[in-house]
Amino acid sequence: MLYVPFWATYVFLYTPIVVVVVMSFNAGKSPFVFEGVSLRWYATLARNADIREGLVNTLIVAAGSTALATVLGTLLAVGLARYTRSRLLDALGTLPAILPDLVLGLGLLVLYATVKMTLGLHSVLLAHTVFGMAFVSAVVRTRLVHADTSLEEASRDLGARPLTTFARVTLPQLAPGILAGALLAFTLSIDEFVIAFFTAAPTTPTLPIIIYSMVRFGVTPEVNALATILLAVSFTVVIVAQRTTRLTESLF
């Protein structure tokens, strides 16, 4: 009886996901009545030009923002942990991850309008870099807590320059945290809707914006097929991240 609430919670959370996956293989047009197994909606999805455009835009934004957020977030984490003890800077570093997406998106839109920046993929990329950097910094700082500072001190005592110590001693120790932060930033960028909705141009929608425009008129098997693909990608990313992190930890 003690496990009943536990399993009930899992059933409540994952039953809708299972229904979406099953209905994505529905041969009929109804999203609620299963009429047989078919891959027709995956073929329809592949022929959808809007979906392909949104996917390309999303991957461009996710790849670019992940690269920037990983570099800036790692430097921010090292700076906050090793070179300053300011609570104000700590708060400002984590603020983009705490602020509601609505507030952050609206604030960035006002900023872009103030500096007269045109909207497009570059504006979404910069916006995703802002909040992705905060998550990377948080993950890397957690890794820094377990880093052996004596190795860095030994490197400096042996005459290594600060940059050499950082590149050859600090970074290898932080590699699992950096990788985890990068994968987290990439996943969040792909799924993010609100900030992209405020900062994207109408001519360059991301995939979540296109999905939103599709579901406004009701859920279709085509949307179920897209959700199933995204779910499979998410599971793959999580598994790869776990395996890679364990491999990196064993190496360093």
From TrEMBL:
InterPro entries: Bact_Polyamine_Transport, MetI-like, MetI-like_sf. Its main location: membrane. Keywords: Cell membrane, Membrane, Transmembrane, Transmembrane helix, Transport. It is found in: Cell membrane. The chain crosses the membrane at residues 7-25, 59-80, 92-113, 119-140, 223-241. It is a multi-pass membrane protein. Residues 55-241 form the ABC transmembrane type-1 domain. Belongs to the binding-protein-dependent transport system permease family. CysTW subfamily. This is ABC transporter permease. It comes from Streptosporangium fragile.
